[in-house]
Input
Amino acid sequence: MNQIALNLVAISIFVMTLSTLLSPLLHFSPVIPALATFSVLAVATLDSFSFQGKGGNLVLDWMASFSPQHRDRIVRHEAGHFLVAHLLNIPITGYTLSAWEALKQKQPGLGGVSFEDRELAAQLDRGMLTAQMLDRYCTVWMAGLAAEDLVYSNTEGGADDRQKLGMVLTPLGYTARAVEQKQRWAVLQAKTLLQANWSAYEALVGMMQQRARVDECCRAIEEHKRDKEDKGEVLI
Output
């Protein structure tokens, strides 16, 4: 089972145990919570093995969507990926901000920014990944965490991003400690880029909140970059 399914199982067991203990006080049959828990476990198992956890993603994402703070954090996280990828000349093919949007676009997980990564895949297949290519993608993968930390002074998301970076670095011979060091380096690089282009970042957040097209988002970034150039500010 994936982590979401396991979480649902753990919650179900806890609720069943608590309900069983409280049933004499609340005057209802313990059979009711037992049947409800069995149903949840069955659905979680079916979702995990038949739908790769997409159903659980949809439920949890729908529950979290009622929080404006959660929605804002997601946009700002993904805007970090988007902006840094654009600045590093990595083509962006699309983005989603919820599990439902990801499902409609046939993307895995809870959503995110999609990149054109055929060159990266080709280099990995040949076992000849250049240092420049590796640094660019590591910086992009950690840019969501960097954006969260700059805005909120903490991070909540990014587990998939860390996992992706580790899956690339480990076959290249990186130890666990070296992977962590690379992650910290990439976060610092992403922060530098975001801070140097903060007005473009804020504009991008607004565009993504409106679900603007990728080309419109890129155009907004370029317009703010030109504004900085006109004012004589240094671009990184």
About this structure: The first strand starts at residue 92 and ends at 96. The chain has a mean pLDDT of 79. The two ends are 43 Å apart (CA to CA). Residues 102 and 153 are 27 Å apart (CA to CA).
